[in-house]
Q: What sequence folds into this?
């Protein structure tokens, strides 16, 4: 770190209570957002309150340092990126402050969906609905003046702004709403007085220019919104700042009006065989007062069909376009009538639509909305050299111009020989176009500016706007003059009134640099880093450099020099892939930010859920690896503690791999990264202990009863905590008097069977072997009861998942190679490999293939199956015995992350529903928080309980007798946190078959009986 940066960091740390981040690794995480751009900032401040913001702004003003406000970083035009100090509001400033029934005051980092969750019990909502509601912050939503599908009903965010607490560029704090110039001419005018009077003069003097240069489109997000803020001598300062993308002031509190939730709503998906028919249909739909009307083209629909089976079933291949139209009403009948009316009108009378599917129940309605909202991010799922790049993704024309405009749009694409996906809010004339270009191809990148220019000429000819809801950022600022002509100079004047020294978010809205669109392109892969520079490049032509303030910025960008002598740890890889797919995998992340979700509708990242900081997010891991691969960070970063700090925030649960719309394989990237770290530094003692949990369990079981005495003895636990980091507060499972492998040998299960058909190799893993042989025996009993022969290979080792999760890949490889060899051999003899432990199933089906480079790993993956999935398959083949006796209990089922990631449905829940008398409630409350060995460690103990709070709360319901889950780590957490027993589904099957009556005792066990106390 250079001395200047170090000084600024120390100064800021002395001034603010929040975080000040200055390490290259952390700065890199803030260098990108959901756009195609990348600029590494000088510093990141995460304020804890307004005072911190004021101090930061004052310091920046004194030192002429640019400031860039940031929410969730989901902007598509690079609005929150820059070379100065990034102020991240999303970490700590995320609370509701006041609510009076019609307005709500919040901090800017509050997530849009969480605000709506707070308002829902009051029958209210904040109506404007940007698609990324689960993650976007209200500060971002108001600063961009975001809209969404329901613009027809609610307009954009700015319409609902009542007042804003802002911090001006000199650090002045201001509760701003509609203001008039001060009458008091005696005293020195305050900074706020100056802004108001200068603004009134500017707007009054330029009223004609402002009026004449407004677009005819019904939406407009380009430049500053000046047409509706002056009323006589008063000016609505809050609404000038709303939509100004952090270029006029920083927002520290927002007071916004809230709207009633609709009583009833329903949607129709109208299908068309021509795009032009859909465009004409929009004008038929609008007079019927819909609450939303979205358009999807053929490419958008066909990609959605490929991404999800339900869409394939409902949308025939020949469909060229679809409209999703929503109505709201007082009663379901009223909504139904409106839906029927529009379908009938467009199909029979106007003969425009060829079909109209109607949905009024929640599930189906959500499915149709997913088609509209969810498909855009999934465009990135399809691996090809070209990608749907957002750079002309936000223009709008008056909706009645659609039939004329769309052919002109297609002509522009044809001229530039580009294909694109088209989706938009047709009701408000808004189109999100994403041309497919190869970001690694200089030729493709060179087409961006001419394509945008030609397209915008067409848009403006129809009276449209180049930005309908996403704002200008780097993508559109250079075209603002094209749209507004002389009004652009008025914007410049407004900027100077608020921010005379130009420190607030330079490079956005006010900037005359000609090549902003292609400057600072994000280097996805090493090749891009080379091609980017002729066009402005990642390290060249930074728009911030053209601003006066940024010109004086102490330089921080660019990787530090490679430290000679340190191994470049990604030249030789530890997993079974080469550098290209590794780099491509990191480059697959488009930065959309969906993985910052804390919503209960998704599982996503358990670590981000309880510690919502950028470095906790899966996106951060992809950014980190991409930067190392592209050279933006020194490869030796992989050996640094900062890297480990961030890598340790991935507990290898695989949830992001499953739920990321672009399908980025973050756990694999992190496996490689952690592996490199361990190869360079070795394991510290605490990590080493976690990777050897199986050895510790073996020892505890071998030494029994001393083992059980030891884990219940305070001094021993204190010692274990100090030495190995195992939390004293964590209740540990008892060691069994005898391991299952020994029991199996006695029962002669360790011999292969000669029987043909129906034979299983049981892969036991640590917990069932050393702590819960009853589970292993239950599986054996259940399988044998169903005529399946069981073989327990005596030489099998534990799965090695803790080694994989902590990057001890050399040892993990040894374990995997050993297991694969003996399991593949068994497969060749006709065995199916069955395991009761979800993380072991994940190893067999997924991780071993990444570690072991021969075909046997694939063979094992193909023939391995989780125990409940195996039995459910048996049932579906009509071969599972159903002589099940009643078990009268009410259970709360938690599905472990690793099973969810295997995408096998919920076989255990299905099986349990076969048991008479058993009532199973699915608890869909996210991760248990235990995350393998994560929750065992002292440093994570509390965090782990917090992360599993949703599950614990649900389990504590007095109507639930016990928990049920397949995962042993989740079981430990559930039993400790909810003080109720938790059983494996296989044990309940054994009980119901009458094979293990002793299991009944566990259904009513008391907390102290579950652990050694
Ligand atoms: C897949 C996808 C779909 C999207 N769909 C929509 C959509 O339907 N509608 C829509 O409008 N947008 C959409 N967007 C764009 C984006 O989500 C919105 O613009 C969103 O409002 C940005 O919020 P954020 O919290 O991520 O803000 P950021 O991206 O972090 O910041 C956005 C801007 O707000 C400024 N800002 C943030 N906080 C403050 C503050 N406290 N004070 C001053 N300035 C601040 C930043 O400087 C920046 O200029 C989409 C993006 C993606 C990736
Ligand atoms: S990891 Fe996936 S969800 Fe997260 S930002 Fe990247 S693409 Fe989006
Ligand atoms: S694998 Fe799990 S812990 Fe790791 S980043 Fe993804 S969701 Fe988070």
A:
């Amino acid at each position: 770190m250079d001395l200047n940066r170090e000084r600024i960091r120390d100064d800021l740390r002395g001034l603010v209570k929040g975080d000040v981040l200055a390490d290259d690794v952390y700065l890199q995480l803030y260098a990108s957002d959901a756009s195609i751009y990348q600029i590494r900032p000088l510093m990141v401040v995460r304020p804890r309150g307004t005072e911190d913001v004021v101090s930061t702004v004052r310091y920046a003003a004194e030192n002429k340092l640019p400031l860039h406000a940031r929410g969730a970083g989901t902007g598509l035009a690079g609005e929150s990126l820059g070379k100065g100090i990034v102020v991240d509001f999303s970490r700590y400033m995320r609370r509701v402050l006041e609510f009076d029934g019609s307005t709500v005051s919040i901090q800017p980092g509050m997530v849009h969906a969480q605000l709506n969750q707070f308002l829902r019990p009051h029958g209210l909502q904040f109506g404007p609905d940007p698609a990324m509601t689960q993650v976007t912050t209200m500060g971002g939503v108001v600063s961009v003046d975001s809209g969404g599908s329901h613009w027809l009903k609610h307009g954009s965010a700015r319409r609902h702004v009542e007042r804003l607490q802002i911090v001006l560029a000199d650090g002045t704090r201001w509760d701003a709403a509609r203001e008039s110039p001060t009458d008091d001419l005696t005293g020195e005018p305050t900074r706020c007085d100056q802004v108001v009077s200068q603004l009134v003069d500017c707007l009054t003097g330029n009223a004609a220019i402002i009026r004449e240069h407004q677009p005819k489109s019904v939406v407009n997000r380009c430049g500053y919104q000046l047409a509706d803020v002056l009323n006589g001598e008063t000016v609505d300062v809050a609404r000038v700042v709303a939509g100004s993308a952090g270029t006029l002031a920083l927002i520290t509190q927002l007071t916004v009006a809230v709207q009633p939730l609709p009583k009833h709503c329903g949607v129709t998906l109208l299908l068309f065989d021509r795009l032009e028919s859909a465009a004409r249909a929009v004008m038929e739909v609008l007079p019927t007062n819909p609450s939303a009307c979205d358009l999807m083209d053929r490419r958008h629909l066909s990609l959605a069909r490929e991404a999800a089976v339900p869409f394939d079933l409902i949308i025939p291949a020949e469909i060229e376009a679809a409209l999703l139209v929503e109505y709201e009403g007082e009663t379901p009948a009223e909504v139904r009538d409106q839906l029927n009316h529009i379908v009938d009108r467009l199909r029979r009378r106007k003969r425009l639509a060829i079909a109209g599917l109607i949905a009024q129940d929640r599930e189906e309605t959500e499915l149709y909305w997913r088609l509209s909202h969810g498909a855009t991010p999934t465009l990135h799922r399809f691996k090809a050299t070209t990608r749907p790049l957002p750079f002309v993704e936000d223009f709008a024309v008056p909706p009645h111009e659609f039939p004329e405009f769309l052919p002109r749009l297609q002509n522009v694409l044809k001229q530039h020989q580009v294909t694109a996906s088209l989706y938009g809010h047709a009701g408000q004339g808004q189109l999100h176009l994403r041309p497919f270009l190869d970001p690694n191809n200089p030729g493709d990148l060179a087409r961006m500016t001419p394509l945008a220019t030609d397209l915008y000429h067409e848009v403006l000819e129809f009276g449209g706007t180049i930005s309908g809801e996403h704002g200008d950022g780097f993508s559109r600022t250079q075209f603002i003059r094209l749209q507004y002509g002389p009004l652009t100079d008025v914007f410049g004047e407004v900027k100077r009134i608020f921010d005379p020294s130009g420190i607030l978010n330079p490079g956005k809205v006010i900037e005359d640099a000609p090549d902003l669109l292609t400057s600072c392109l994000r280097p996805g892969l090493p090749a891009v880093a080379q091609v980017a520079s002729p066009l402005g490049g990642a390290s060249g032509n930074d728009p911030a450099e053209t601003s006066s303030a940024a010109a004086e910025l102490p330089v921080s960008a660019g990787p530090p020099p490679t430290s000679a002598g340190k191994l470049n740890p990604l030249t030789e890889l530890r997993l079974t892939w080469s550098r290209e797919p590794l780099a491509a995998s990191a480059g697959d992340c488009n930065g959309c930010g969906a993985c910052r979700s804390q919503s209960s509708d998704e599982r996503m990242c358990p670590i981000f859920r309880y510690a919502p900081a950028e470095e906790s997010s899966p996106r951060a891991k992809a950014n980190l690896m991409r930067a190392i691969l592209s050279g933006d960070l020194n490869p030796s970063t992989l050996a640094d503690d900062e890297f480990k700090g961030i890598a340790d925030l991935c507990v290898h649960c695989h949830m992001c791999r499953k739920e990321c719309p672009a399908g980025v394989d973050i756990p694999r990237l992190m496996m490689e990264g952690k592996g490199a770290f361990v190869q360079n530094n070795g394991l510290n003692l605490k990590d080493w202990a976690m990777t050897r949990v199986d050895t510790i369990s073996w020892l505890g079981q071998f030494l029994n009863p001393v083992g059980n005495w030891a884990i219940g003895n305070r001094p021993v636990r204190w010692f274990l905590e100090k030495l190995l980091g195992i939390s004293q507060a964590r209740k540990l499972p008892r060691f069994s008097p005898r391991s299952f492998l020994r029991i199996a040998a006695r029962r002669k299960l360790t011999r292969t069977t000669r029987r043909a058909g129906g034979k299983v190799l049981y892969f036991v893993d640590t917990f069932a072997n050393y702590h819960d042989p009853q589970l292993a025996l239950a599986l054996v009993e259940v399988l044998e009861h169903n005529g399946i022969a069981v073989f327990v290979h005596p030489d099998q080792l534990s799965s090695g998942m803790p080694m994989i999760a902590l990057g001890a890949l050399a040892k993990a490889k040894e374990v995997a190679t050993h297991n694969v060899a003996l399991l593949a051999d068994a497969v060749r003899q006709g065995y199916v490999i069955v395991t009761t432990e979800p993380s072991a199933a994940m190893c067999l089906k997924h991780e071993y293939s990444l570690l072991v480079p021969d075909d046997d790993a694939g063979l094992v993956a193909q023939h391995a199956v989780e125990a409940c999935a195996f039995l459910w398959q048996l049932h579906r083949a009509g071969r599972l015995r159903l002589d099940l006796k009643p078990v009268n209990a009410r259970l709360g089922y938690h599905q472990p992350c690793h099973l969810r990631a295997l995408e096998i449905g919920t076989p255990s829940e299905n099986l349990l529903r076969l048991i008479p008398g058993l009532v199973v409630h699915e608890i869909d409350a996210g991760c248990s928080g235990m995350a393998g060995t994560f929750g065992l460690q002292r440093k994570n103990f509390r965090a782990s309980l917090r992360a599993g709070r949703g599950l614990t709360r649900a389990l504590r319901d007095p109507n639930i007798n016990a928990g049920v889950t397949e995962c042993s780590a989740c079981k430990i957490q559930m039993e400790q946190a909810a003080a109720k027993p938790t059983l494996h589904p296989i044990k309940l099957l054994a009980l119901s078959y009458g094979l293990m009556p002793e299991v009944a005792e566990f259904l009513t066990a008391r907390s102290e009986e579950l652990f050694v106390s």
Remarks:
- Confidence is low (pLDDT under 50) at residues 525-568.
- The longest helix spans residues 809-828.
- Residues 33-34, 68-76, 79-80, 89, 108, 130-132, 136-137, 139-141, 143-144, 146-148, 245-246, 250-251, 376-377, 469-470, 505, 592 surround flavin-adenine dinucleotide (ligand 1) (CB under 6 Å).
- The longest strand covers residues 264-272.
